[in-house]
Amino acid sequence: MRKKMNKIALIIILTCSSAFAGDDKVIFDVSRFPDSGLMRMKTSNGYVLVVKRSHEAIAKLESQKHPIYEEDPGVVKNIYRSIRKDLFVTYSPCRDGSQLSSFDLKKGFVCSDCAKYDLAGVPMNECAGKQPSVLPEHYYSDEKTLVLPK
Which residues lie below 8 Å from residue 60, measured CB to CB, with a gap of 6+? Predict the structure, then answer.
């Protein structure tokens, strides 16, 4: 009898070949992503998560009524909360010492304190509160290079 297996999200902890730190920035090579998944990098300001959204996840975001957050940088004031709709860059949404306990390519982030956030960092339950995840300053120097100031 075959057991039904849940699809597990690919989590990549960045290595020196995927990201490197310059004098004033951290550079991610986003071309190393599979079709969808999550990369995590520790920076001086906390963990930065880079999510490669699937076509299905993008369609789901487009079908929802997301708020536009005033505190978001102008370049990401959209329903995706990102510069590119296929890539979402955020600080870990988990607060107060809570850890990211799971990540689902269809549903989003779950923190160890029960907080849930969708793939745009929007809170999905009371435990998460009303504030979205915080977005770091970042830009793309070309199609495959994500740059984060340190």
Answer: 106, 119
